[in-house]
Design goal:
single chain; 183 residues; alpha/beta; two-stranded antiparallel ribbon
């Protein structure tokens, strides 16, 4: 196994220590966001990140013990009050270290609210697939994934929904995680 793959697999295995039924967030839920995906979006800002990209716009979200523990049911209730949203985007921090909680919320907004679901991640789709488990199940619940770490040397403000040229916007087949289109 290549060293970078091994390091990435160790990092994705650093799951946040959050009790069942809770998620650790770094900020209140956001509504009517237009910069983190297509249309008007609710945004859930997760807390905890093992990647620590140089130039990260949210380094305050790295700490696994910071942020606020919130009941997933409370998140669902609040999202149900958001009218006129097209979807939900998971930002961070790193959503995939709280994959089980994120998937529960993703499934709720899709089934109950009819929204599409996007997520950002510093991991690649390939690393998530290799890791498997809750992370892969969360990925399979997404319509789109912006993957890859932010790389300061590849920063490009002209990219749609991405900060650096190495990152990809992957449109996914729901339920399989198969890539349908790459931007």
């Amino acid at each position: 196994m290549a060293d970078s793959l091994e390091v990435s697999l160790k990092k994705i295995a650093q799951v946040a220590d959050v009790p069942d039924g809770y998620i650790r967030v770094s900020a209140p839920l956001e509504r009517e966001n237009i910069v983190n995906g297509d249309g008007l979006r609710a945004v859930l800002w997760t807390q905890s990140c093992p990647i620590h990209c140089m130039g990260c716009q949210n380094p305050e979200t790295w700490d696994y013990k910071a942020g606020t523990l919130v009941k997933i049911e409370d998140i669902k209730k609040e999202l149900s009050k958001f009218k006129g949203q097209d979807g939900l985007t998971f930002c961070g921090g790193e959503p995939f270290v709280q994959a089980k909680a994120c998937k529960e919320i993703a499934d709720f907004v899709r089934e109950e609210l009819g929204w599409n679901v996007w997520s950002f991640t510093g991991f690649t789709r390939e690393i998530i697939k290799e890791h498997g488990g809750d992370a892969w199940e969360f990925l399979k619940s997404l319509d789109a994934l912006i993957d890859g770490p932010f790389v300061l040397a590849e920063r490009d403000l002209s990219l749609r929904y991405r900060g650096s040229r190495n990152q990809r916007l992957l449109h996914l087949e729901l339920g399989t995680g198969k890539v349908l289109r790459i931007e």
